Amino acid sequence: MDLNTADIAPRYRTILDQCEPFIVTFPGNHSALDLAPLGLKINPERIYDPTRLASRNVIDGLHKLDAFSFGGQEMLMPRWVLFDCGEFPGVVFGFGRRAAELGDDLRRAYDVLGSAKNDRFVPLSMWVAIRNAEDGAWFGHNLSSANFVSNHPLPGLGTITKTLGVKVAKIRKQYGATQWDSTSINLHLALGDMELLNAYTPAHTHVETFTYRIEVDDTRLVAPLLPGWSRPREGGDRFIDADNPGDIIRLHEDIEAGGRYRLHRIEMRPGKGQRLWIETQSPVPRP
């Protein structure tokens, strides 16, 4: 399946016009990956091997991006974590630009000011995926973009990054974990139905984290990139308020008791935490 860039929404055409896709992964993984996701060929110069010194600058940029996104949430990745869990066994996919093409705000944030660094490639987004033992299944470890530190953001950068990243890794089942109050849930939800595997995770740094599975469907995956696509505004038979721990615990108990649920839509509530509407796929078995 190839994507005709003339058919996608203008915001995504802008990203493809202004940015270059890149990958960081060990070369031994290349044969298992699609290096032209949806027909978008990745320039060999933008395929980085994390074991080589030549990749140092782009990897430094990834850690800058991680710090922008997660440094205040107690989830900042040590360098060894990104290497051991993502860059070497899995894949880091994203979009970037040469430093000379960036505004001073981003150049300062990435520490690439000055003409000597004009040609340095700067990663503006990344999606980190780790292969599971289950055939065709990967875990989405990290999704971030530099939009919020830029005076000239690229709307939709996170969405197109994850969409193409899923295609790069040839994923059929995508697992992930995120917090109930995360502002990125809508992005993940746009790309497929999120089956909830749990609602509360003491194994995580943030216990109010849920784990999900998306059965990847190419049509659904690509739909958000096309003109006219919109999110559902109605539906769901149960809601979870992100700022209500009791809601979260009760849903988790129902999942452990055998209930099956999937996330349907997000309701933003000004001045309050977001409300997440759930669809019951199979209710808790009752004696």
**Oligomer class:** single chain
Q: What's the number of helices?
A: 8
Q: Please state the CA-atom Rg, rounded to the nearest Å.
A: 19 Å
Shape: globular
Strand content: 25-35%
Summarize the structure in short.
With 287 residues, the protein is an alpha+beta fold. The chain is built from 8 helices and 12 strands.
Describe what this molecule looks like in 3D.
The protein is 26% helix and 25% strand. By secondary structure, it is of the alpha+beta class. It has a domain at 5-172 and 216-231: Aminopeptidase (3-Layer(aba) Sandwich), CATH 3.40.630. The radius of gyration is 19 Å and the shape is globular. It starts with 9 loop residues before the first helix and ends in a 5-residue tail after the last strand.
Throw out a few tags for this protein:
287 residues, 8 helices, Aminopeptidase, twelve-stranded mixed beta sheet, single chain, alpha+beta
Topology, please?
Layout: H1 10-18, E1 20-24, E2 47-48, H2 56-70, H3 79-87, E3 91-98, H4 104-109, E4 121-123, E5 125-131, E6 137-145, H5 157-168, E7 173-179, H6 185-190, E8 194-198, E9 209-215, H7 218-222, E10 238-241, H8 245-256, E11 260-267, E12 275-282
Parallel strand pairs: 1-2, 6-7
Antiparallel strand pairs: 1-3, 3-4, 3-5, 5-6, 7-9, 8-9, 8-11, 10-12, 11-12
